[in-house]
Amino acid sequence: MKQYSQVTAMLAITRASLKSIFRSPSAVIFSFVFPFVFILVFGFIGGNGGAPVFKIALDKNCDTSNALYDSIKTSNRIKIIQFSSDKELRRSLEKGKLTAVLNIQKNADSFPPYRYNIKSTTASNDKWPQLMPVLNNMVNTISNQQYANRPVYALDKSDYTKDIETIREYRTIDFILPGQLGFSLLSSGVFGVAFMFFNLRSTLVLKRFFATPISRTHIILGEGLARVIFQMITAIVIILAGHYFFKFTLINGIETLLEMLVLSFIGLVIFMGLGFIVSGLATSDSTIPPFANLLTLPQFLLGGTFFSVEAFPKWLQPISNILPLTHLNTAMRAVAFEGQSLWEVRDEIGIMLIWGVVVYAVAVKVFKWE
Question: What is the three-class DSSP state of 102?
Fold first, then answer.
């Protein structure tokens, strides 16, 4: 007599579940259509993804005993970043993490009293042109308030747009696409798993499974594997479409793509755990959306999906930085544009793994089979 194979049964469940997912309009819309709609709306209509906070560094010879430096230091739009070495500063410029390097100097000709210039790179092409009006407004305010409208700071244009070197250009799509991929993974993981297991339970499909030799563990693995395969296909389509149609940056090509898929897998597994929790807590179809929205909406809005976390009020940023989607989006952007390896984003991965342990500990407690 042929021995019953748990793996074969699990794969049969996976195939059947995968077919049902592809036949589900809601699954296709949430996973494929919505992300592309948001990429178009926020990426090409919505502008730069929120009011930016400009990160600058000071030239080592910058004069700091003047009113312009004092205004910058207290500004909520400009943040001065200090670096331990020129190499570190250069790397930040090349990766687009730093908007510009500012240098303020006393004028040898005595009038106007000061001159200033900025150095930037093509990686910050979307930022430094927006920085200049902020600086100019500060200069005008100082001139009006302290020097009776006399010009005090002259812009030295010799280094105004000078690149340290020509490198990749940061585009809006480089911010938007990872956020929308995270959106797709979160919505599919939570809503998809919650509705799937609740329906399996309410339609007595799980009860019929129990009449067969397949173990409960393999039932979950089979259903979960179908969801993982579907979302990995979704991730590949979103990333490659973004790359070839919208010029999304994959700095190291196929290597970067594979690293983003690894991050997608980690994020999806965590979000599926949230779906198991919702499935266990729900008492009817109508109670799933409130529970699911309670877990997903804060992450959609605060997880750096549509806007940079730095654009939020300071009191709100610690809350944003706790959420697992925030760390997934941050890791995705660092890998795709900055060229960081998975090891270099290990802090983000570590926090997500901690979330995974907590989520599945809760899921085990609340999940119901019948």
Answer: strand
Nearest 5 degrees, angle CA 355-CA 360-CA 363? Answer: 130
Query: How many CA within 13 A on the CB side of residue 31?
Result: 27
Name the pTM for this structure: 0.73
pLDDT digits (tens, 9 = 90+) for 144-192: 776 555 555 555 555 444 444 444 566 778 888 999 899 889 988 998 8
pLDDT tens-digit profile of 67-84?
888 888 888 888 898 888
Q: Radius of gyration (Cα) for the chain, nearest Å?
A: 26
Q: What is the pLDDT of residue 46?
A: 42
Separation of alpha carbons 26 and 145, rounded Å: 59
> For the chain, which residues make up each domain, given as ranges?
6-46+170-366, 54-159
CB atoms under 10 Å from CB of 308, counted, come to: 18
Q: Which CATH number fits domain 54-159: 3.40.390, 3.40.190, 3.30.565, 3.40.50?
A: 3.40.190
Closest CA to 92 of 280, 338, 348, 284: 338
Find the length of the chain: 370
